[in-house]
Specification:
Mean pLDDT: 75
Largest sheet: none
Number of helices: 3
Shape: flat
Strand content: under 5%
Length: 86
C-alpha cells in the first residue's frame, strides 16, 4: 500500500470513529456519488461527424389557428367553471 492510501485509510478510520455509522454511510455515499459525477464530466467527447447542409426553414404556423381556438375554448371553460363554483 502506498503512502497516500494509508493516509486516506487513516482519515476514513478517524471519520468512522468520530461520526456515527449512519452519518458516515450517508457522507460516504454522497462523496462517492459526487466524485463519480465529476469524473463523468471530465471525460473527453468526440465531436459529432459533419452533417449535410442545413435544411430549409421549417414552417411553425401550420396549425397555430387550431391551437389558438383550443386555447380560447379551454380558457373560457376554466373561467366559466371557476365562476360557477363560487
Amino acid at each position: 500500500m502506498s503512502y497516500p492510501l494509508l493516509c486516506y485509510a487513516e482519515i476514513l478510520r478517524l471519520l468512522y470513529l468520530c461520526v456515527m455509522k449512519a452519518q458516515f454511510k450517508t457522507i460516504l455515499i454522497f462523496t462517492v456519488l459526487l466524485l463519480s459525477n465529476i469524473v463523468c464530466f471530465a471525460q473527453d467527447v468526440d465531436p459529432p461527424p459533419p452533417s449535410g447542409p442545413n435544411p430549409p426553414g421549417l414552417p411553425i404556423d401550420q396549425n397555430i389557428l387550431l391551437l389558438l381556438i383550443v386555447g380560447l375554448i379551454y380558457g373560457a371553460y376554466s373561467i366559466w367553471f371557476s365562476s360557477k363554483n363560487e
